[in-house]
Specification:
- Residues 293-487 form the Rab-GAP TBC domain.
- Keywords: Coiled coil.
- Residues 73-84, 169-179 have a biased composition (Basic and acidic residues).
- Residues 1-200 are annotated as: Disordered.
- This protein is mostly helical.
- It has helices at residues 2-21, 57-65, 71-83, 200-204, 218-268, 280-290, 296-307, 317-330, 335-345, 362-374, 387-396, 399-412, 415-420, 423-440, 442-451, 459-464, 473-486, 488-502, 511-519, 523-533, 554-560, 565-574, 579-589, and strands spanning 149-152, 159-162, 179-180.
- A three-stranded antiparallel β-sheet has the order 2-1-3, with no helix packed on it.
- β1 and β2 form a beta hairpin.
- α8 (317-330) packs across α10, α10 packs across α11 (387-396) and α17 (473-486) packs across α18.
- The N and C termini lie far apart (164 Å).
- The relative contact order is 0.05.
């Protein structure tokens, strides 16, 4: 009896120690009647200690599928699993003892990765003692958190963080249990990422300085990039403004042509010499002629009337000259002349693609040129440049009419001296022009004299082709219109104006570069034209040879250098030209020519 009493006392003492040291836990099989039944969720107890309740994966799925069913059946099923003392993953589960109601429960993470309905719900704040907590909302499936799990040891004040895959609950004794609390980690805030990230090369290499020079500072680089953006924007605005101005000029020109057409038809075409009258009507019609409003349909007829036929060339003269050409060709005495003519024709208005070999007007132009080379000449000869005025005539009249006009035009104008092959007459015209240049542009004349820049470098190519080889076709045609009206002096006046336009480029001490300006091959102007036509490659080269026809023409370069139709004729009107001075100079240098 005494042994049994001692054993009972010892057991009672152990029981009291267990009750004092271990937290009160309770099985969900016997909840308090006045407390709501937790549905697979967890709340903390009143004194802040966490109690762990295992959530079986199968039970969770059953709870999701049978939501709203009788809660007692779910509690009894959970209690049966709890009495077995094991979790679904094989670990011990803490169960409740005594009559105290656990008022807070914390969730545990299911370790089964195959369960899509597992969830991690953060613990709700601890409720005051004896205060029933509100019923949590039904459990909803969510993706398991990958944040570390914090395990709280009741006997220690330190928290131990372990990955969720390795967090386990260890049983230290029959009356001792560890609570496992899951604290979901907040999703880290992502910084906005720019969609235009700088490459490594852009971070190191300056975008506004050559790579062979020392790099700029970051502040200087940013400043220059901003300035570059401003310049590009200004360039786009300037280009837009130029296009608008060009469209406005085109509209004004179309209106002027439509307005002038009936005047040409009624007042000038019946008697073109009325333009030469020194009265109000004559001056008004003369201004109309200068304005470039001559109708295209009447241009050939007006040109023929202005040139006239003082040599009385018959209409069948072209066919007679062509017969002689065939005879000389058969005799083998015409190869050199024919070769020179073909070379000249290849240079004529290449942008039009009308006169080169194989084109539609090639045969007509060659027939007129070869006929001129044998007309009233003992020995056939051809002079370079003749193909250009001949091409202008053929564009506006038939080949037979063009031949008559060409023969008379060459004979009655300065072209006779330029095509005659007599160097003395050509030099006489050079002296005339040098005198005019000294009067109108003394600085340029002094510079040309110091560098020995002769008029043969620029004046002969301009005048022998009547500027058709250098200026745009519309401008060259308008110059030809006024030349037929005003005479030889007008082409020398045009030469002075073009030199005024090119004046900033005429003081280059390098004679080769100066020649490139006159020839229309100036590198700077050519580069601008290539850029505007989209012919530049990434390495600064040109794609003219591969672009299927788009190329930089001499007329494009002259236009880029400022020789546009509007500017040329504006300067021509502003030029204080004295016709008497030109006539006196020609009479002095070429007394047998006269004007």
């Amino acid at each position: 009896m005494s042994g049994d009493a001692t054993l009972d006392d010892t057991t009672a003492g152990l029981h009291e120690v267990a009750l004092d040291e271990a937290p009160p836990i309770r099985s969900r099989a016997t909840p308090r009647a006045d407390s709501p039944t937790p549905l697979d969720g967890h709340v903390g107890d009143a004194d802040g200690r966490a109690g762990g309740i295992g959530i079986d994966a199968d039970a969770t799925e059953a709870g999701q599928a049978a939501e709203g069913a009788d809660a007692d059946a779910s509690i009894r099923a959970d209690a049966t699993r709890t009495d077995e003392g094991m979790n679904s993953d094989g670990g011990f589960e803490a169960v409740s003892l005594g009559d105290e109601q656990a008022e807070d429960h914390s969730p545990t993470i299911q370790e089964n990765g195959d369960d899509p309905h597992r969830s991690s719900t953060p613990p709700s704040p601890a409720s005051p003692a004896h205060t029933p907590p509100s019923t949590p909302p039904p459990h909803s499936p969510s993706v398991v958190s990958t944040a570390p799990t914090t395990t709280i040891d009741p006997s220690s004040s330190h928290n131990v963080s372990t990955p969720p895959e390795t967090a386990e609950t260890d049983a230290k004794g029959a009356g001792e249990a560890e609570a496992k609390v899951v604290t979901p980690a907040a999703t880290p805030q992502k910084k906005p990422v720019s969609t235009r990230k700088q490459t490594v090369m852009q971070k190191v290499v300056s975008m506004t300085r050559q790579r062979t020079l020392p790099p700029k500072s970051k502040e200087e680089e940013e400043k220059h990039l901003e300035q570059l953006a401003e310049m590009l924007a200004a360039s786009r605005e300037a280009e837009k403004r130029r296009r608008s101005e060009a469209e406005a000029r085109s509209a004004l020109r179309a209106t002027a042509l439509a307005t002038a057409f009936p005047v040409w038809e009624k007042s000038i075409l019946p008697n073109w010499r009325v333009v030469l009258h020194d009265d109000a009507q004559g001056r008004r019609l003369r201004d109309l002629w200068w304005d470039g409003t001559m109708p295209v349909r009447w241009r050939g007829r007006l040109w023929a009337m202005c040139i006239g036929n003082g040599l009385a060339v018959g209409k069948n003269e072209l066919s007679k000259a062509s017969e002689r050409v065939r005879a000389l060709r058969e005799a083998g005495k015409f190869e050199e002349v024919e070769r020179a003519a073909k070379e000249d024709v290849e240079r004529v208005l290449p942008a039009l693609k009308l006169f080169q070999e194989g084109r539609v007007m090639h045969e007509d132009l060659m027939e007129v040129l070869l006929a001129w080379s044998v007309h009233e000449k003992v020995t056939p000869r051809y002079v370079p440049g003749l193909a250009f005025p001949a091409a202008l005539l053929i564009l506006n009249m038939s080949p037979s009419e063009a031949f008559v006009c060409l023969v008379n035009l060459v004979q009655k104008s300065f072209l006779r001296s330029f095509y005659s092959g007599d160097p003395d007459e050509v030099e006489a015209y050079y002296r005339v022009f040098d005198t005019l240049l000294a009067d109108y542009m003394p600085r340029v004349y002094a510079n040309f004299s110091a560098q020995v820049v002769r008029p043969s470098l620029y004046l002969f190519p301009w005048l022998s082709t009547l500027y058709t080889a250098f200026l745009p076709l519309d401008l060259a045609t308008r110059i030809f219109d006024v030349f037929l009206l005003e005479g030889d002096s007008f082409v020398f006046r045009v030469a002075i104006v073009i030199l005024q336009i090119l004046e900033p480029r005429l003081f280059n001490p390098n004679l080769d570069e100066l020649s490139a300006v006159f020839e229309g091959t100036d590198k700077g102007a050519v580069g601008v034209v290539r850029r505007e036509k989209g012919l530049l490659t990434a390495d600064g080269g040109s794609i003219e040879e591969r672009d299927g026809g788009i190329r930089v023409e001499v007329e494009d370069v002259y236009s880029e250098m400022g020789a546009t139709e509007d500017r040329v004729f504006k300067l021509l009107r502003q030029l204080d030209w004295k016709e008497e001075t030109f006539a006196r100079l020609v009479e002095r240098e070429l007394p047998e020519v006269g004007v």
